[in-house]
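User: Could you go from structure to sequence for me? I need the amino acid at each position, not a summary. Structure tokens:
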């Protein structure tokens, strides 16, 4: 019985990676960055849910989707003359988008885990206590951070190589998101 479950899980993971690779190969005619990443992160979340992945692995894609959507919305709003000089438009847009997407979904994807710190002191002190955390919320914050960090990583890679390859930012986004979601699926 256990071997069958492992086989089914491996089959779902191969199917997930196959669908992601087909999606990445089918977009060679588009050179947009942010709307494509936004749509791709949303599609990744839908595929992950259909494959039955853990809610924490799904949270990585949903966090990335919400931050990319907020970033894209800020870029659209900057075209408006009245709003374009607003000082905190980008962080405010990202925060509102993240909270308005993740917090309602947090009720549906409820996954709590705990870890223990046993450094020193009596049990119950700050460094000797058991802490509980929401895996979905943590994973969605990590997915959002990946979307925020990957453009800088792409620029760094371009600086090292003195050129970039087609869809470099998109590929870096998806590779990091897939890597982190697989880590959440298998080990966390």
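Assistant: Here is the amino acid at each position, in order:
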């Amino acid at each position: 019985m256990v071997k069958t479950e492992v086989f089914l899980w491996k089959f779902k993971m191969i199917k997930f990676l196959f669908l992601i690779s087909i999606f990445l190969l089918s977009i060679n005619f588009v050179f947009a960055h942010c709307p494509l990443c936004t749509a791709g992160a949303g599609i990744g979340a839908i595929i992950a849910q259909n494959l039955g992945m853990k809610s924490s692995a799904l949270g990585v894609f949903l966090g990335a989707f919400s931050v990319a959507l907020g970033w894209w919305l800020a870029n659209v709003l900057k075209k408006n003359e009245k709003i374009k000089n607003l000082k905190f438009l980008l962080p405010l847009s990202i925060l509102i988008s993240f909270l308005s997407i993740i917090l309602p979904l947090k009720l549906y994807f409820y996954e709590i885990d705990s870890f223990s710190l046993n450094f020193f002191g009596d049990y119950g002190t700050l460094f000797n206590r058991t802490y509980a955390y929401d895996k979905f919320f943590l994973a969605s914050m990590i997915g959002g951070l990946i979307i925020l960090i990957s453009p800088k990583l792409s620029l760094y890679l371009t600086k090292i190589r003195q050129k970039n390859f087609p869809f470099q930012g998109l590929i870096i986004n998806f590779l990091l998101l897939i890597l982190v979601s697989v880590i959440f699926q298998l080990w966390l």
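One structural detail worth keeping in mind: The chain is about 70% helix and 5% strand.
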